[in-house]
Design goal:
The chain is of the alpha+beta class. Helix content is 27%, strand content 27%. The chain folds into two domains: 128 residues, D-amino Acid Aminotransferase, Chain A, domain 1 (2-Layer Sandwich); 160 residues, D-amino Acid Aminotransferase, subunit A, domain 2 (D-amino Acid Aminotransferase, Chain A, domain 2). Helix 6 crosses helix 8. It is globular, with a radius of gyration of 19 Å. It binds 4'-deoxy-4'-aminopyridoxal-5'-phosphate (PMP). The site of 4'-deoxy-4'-aminopyridoxal-5'-phosphate has 13 residues, from helix 6 and strand 14.
Amino acid sequence: MTIGVSIDGVLVPAGEARVPVFDRGFLYGDSVYEVIRTYGLAPFATTPHLDRLAASAERTALRIPWSDARMEEEIGRVVQASRGGDEDDPEGAPWNRGERSIRVVVTRGSGEMGLDPGLASDPMVVLLALPLRGPPLSAYRKGVPTWPVGGPGGPRRGGDPSAKTGEHLFHVLAVREARAHDAHEALLVDGSGYVTEGASSNVFAVRGGVLETPPLGAGILAGVTRALVVGIARDLGIPVQERPLPLSALEGADEAFLTSTVREVLPVVRVGDRAIGRGEPGPVTGRLHAAFRERAGGHESGKAPPRG
Ligand code: PMP
């Protein structure tokens, strides 16, 4: 099977899954969502993800029609429906083998055409369980290039960055620009020259043994992985400073990495045309990812990603 689809609690074969053309998620990006992943096919960190979904819904005045208990039950069903049929991915990281990423989408539903949110009253819930396509193992060993997008006079994103919504065009175009420069991720730079986050990740720098990451107030999504990594760093005795991160500070950092549900902790070795540190994954990044691997588990749990 490998892809599970559930629409309003009904499991549907992926090839037959359809949503109405009048759905406001489709027409206006009028939706909120989460991406949860599995380890050993068990959903990981479901509670902080569902808490963030509730916060995104609150900020957008959208109603989540299900309780968290119902949502967890339906997530379990869609993962179950997706079991089997995995193609072997020899390039993939071993801890992603056979795993699923689960997209939870809640739209404001369908109604008469018009921007007024009062025109729709029945939210729609779509759950997708897809084979998890994380970065290849080589990306963890060698690190990835990133590309800064935006900056003073650059395009500005709309909406509320702390809400995870279906309004994505800014991020889509940022990733397009990054790909045009063969970069793995776009780094979003605000009008004052501060790096806020990646298009779908949070950003960390290591400078002089201190872990730095932009604060939640910098206009970022409160990443679930970001919070886990900040906690792990504190447990390991690595000082953490949440403070605004000028692009120049990131470029001059000893190490840098990205965090996200699908990436875990991914070393960054270039920002634009500049190499970070010696242009290879750094030791603090390695320690943090190894500690993260131990906590998250999954296939080959506890093993640090091989490097070099
Ligand atoms: N920032 C943005 C804009 C994102 O889309 C994501 C991915 N959800 C993240 C950060 C990382 O968040 P998380 O660790 O919860 O996946």
